[in-house]
C-alpha cells in the first residue's frame, strides 16, 4: 500500500476512535444525570407536599377560629334564653342556636377531614424521603464506578491522541489538508474500504479502472461518485 494512503487509513481509524469517546462519556454521565434528576424530582415533590401540609394546617387554624365563634354563639343563645318573652323570640333564638350547632358540627368534621389528608401526605412524604435515600446510595455507588470508567477512558484517549500527534508529524501537509477537506463533510467515513467493487461510503459500484487503481494502492484514489478516499482491505483487516 502507498505510504501516504497507509497513513490516511491509520489517521482515519484514529479519528474514528477519538470521536467514539464523546458518546461513551455522554452515556456514562447520562446514567449519573438520571439519578440526579430522580433526586431533584423527589425534592420537588417533598417541597410540594410540605407546602400543601402548611396550607392544610392554616385551614385547620382558620376552622378552629370559626369553632370558637360558633361556641360563643351557642353560649350567647343560652344566656339570652332566660330573657326572651315571646314565642317568636324563642323560635328565632332556637333557630340561631341550632344553626350555630350545625356549623360547629360541620367545622369539627372539616378538621377531621383535613387531619386525615395531612396524615396521608405525611405518609407520602416519608415514602419519598425513603426512596431518596435509596437513590442516593445507588448514586454514590454509580459515581464510584463512573469515576473509574472515566479515568480509564481518559488514559486511553491520551494514548490515542499521542498516536495521532506522532502520525501527523510524519505526514505530508498537502495529503493531510486533502484528507481534512473530505472529513469536514464525510466525518468518519472520509477513508473507506472497497468491498465487492463498491465504495463503502456511498455504496455505489466503482468502474473497473478505478477498482484496479485501488487494488494496486500505488496512489491515493477517490470514489468517482462521492469523493471519499478508497483503499483495499488486507486479509488481516
From TrEMBL:
Keyword Coiled coil listed: yes
Pfam families in the cross-refs: CT398_CC, Zn_ribbon_9
Domain of life: Bacteria
Assigned keywords, A-Z: Coiled coil
Residue ranges annotated for the CT398-like coiled coil hairpin domain, each copy included: 14-184
Domain C4-type zinc ribbon: from-to ranges: 198-230
Alphabetized Gene3D superfamilies for the sequence: 1.10.287.1490
Residues in coiled coil: 25-159
Protein name: Zinc ribbon domain protein (DUF164 domain)
Origin organism lineage: Bacteria, Pseudomonadati, Campylobacterota, Epsilonproteobacteria, Campylobacterales
